[in-house]
Amino acid sequence: MGVKVYGMPMSTNTIRVLAALNEKGVEFELVIVDLRTGAHKQPDFVALNPFGQIPVLEDGDVVLFESRAISRYIATKYSEAGPDLLLSGGTLAERAAVDLWLEVESQQFGPPIAALVYEALIKPMLGGATDAAVVEAQAGKLEKVLDVYEARLAQSKYLAGAEFTLADLNHIPYTNYLMKTPKASLVTSRPHVLAWWQDVSSRAAWKKTAAGIPF
Ligand code: GS8
């Protein structure tokens, strides 16, 4: 039985999982769970993820939710294929740097960029109106985070060091959507963050993943 991902092609957290699978060259089936019809709150799906959210990964007997746990599982299971996303052959300090930037993505970068992207891009697609004050507030928070990234990326080609890792990959889905909002300037005004974005978003695996996003 092959790998199944339950989710939607436009969902950032689903895209994080697909990006990891594509980096590793793993074949998968995307099973559509349509948030617009409430499919994620139906008992058969809640049996897979008790939080009733996408994505879910099913790999034989292994069923996982939380996209960051799933991307780490993929990076670990397929450590031999494609890039060494967790620097498993590296020193303790090198692996710790991957963990550090994975945490920064989840704890510092994720909350403001998710709120900004929802307000500026997703909400209008769902028929709502963007609240400019929310966008400004979240952009203010993200700006401070990206100042830290600018300093880091001035010294290091990728977030965890000289190699592309899962820490970089986990940032791609939300940054991709940020670039489609008027706040893309948060990236384009920071030369090292921009160079990093141009590099990570030009990877063949990301281009393949992006081709599946409907807009
Ligand atoms: C968040 C999943 C999530 O918010 C993860 O997997 O990383 N921390 C979790 N999923 C959204 C779709 S955006 O990708 C979702 O399922 N929303 C519907 C809901 O919460 O009811």
UniProtKB/TrEMBL annotation:
Residues 1-82 form the GST N-terminal domain. It catalyses: RX + glutathione = an S-substituted glutathione + a halide anion + H(+). The keyword Transferase applies. Residues 91-215 form the GST C-terminal domain. GO terms for molecular function: glutathione binding; glutathione transferase activity. Coiled coil: none annotated. CDD domains: GST_C_Phi, GST_N_Phi. GO terms for biological process: glutathione metabolic process; response to herbicide. PANTHER family: GLUTATHIONE S-TRANSFERASE RHO. This is glutathione transferase.
